[in-house]
Amino acid sequence: MKKASRKLRIRPLLCGLALLTSFTLTGCSVPGSSGSAGGRPQTTKIYVIGQSQGISFWDDVEQGANEAGEEFGYEIHYSNAESVSDVQSQIDLINEAISQQANAIVISPNDEAKLKDSIQAARDAGLTIITINADFEDTSMRSSYVGTNNLTAGKIAGRHIVEALTDPVNEKILVVTHSETANSAVSRVSGMCMIDGPAYGQAMQKSMQEAAMARAAAMQQGGQGNAGGPPEGAGGPPADAQQGNAGGPPADAQQGNAGGPPADAQQGNAGGPPADAQQGNAGGPPADAQQGNAGGPPADAQQGNAGGPPPDGAGGPPAEQSGPSEEAAASREAAMQGGKGTLPANVMVRNCGGDLNVAKTMTMEALKENPDIKVVYSTNETSTLGVCQAIQELGLEPDEMTVIGFNSNESELQYLRGGVLDALVVQNPYNIGYLGVYYAGQFATGGGASGMEYTGVVYVTAENIDDDDIQLILDPKKYIGY
Question: Are 219 and 238 in the same domain?
Answer without folding.
Answer: yes
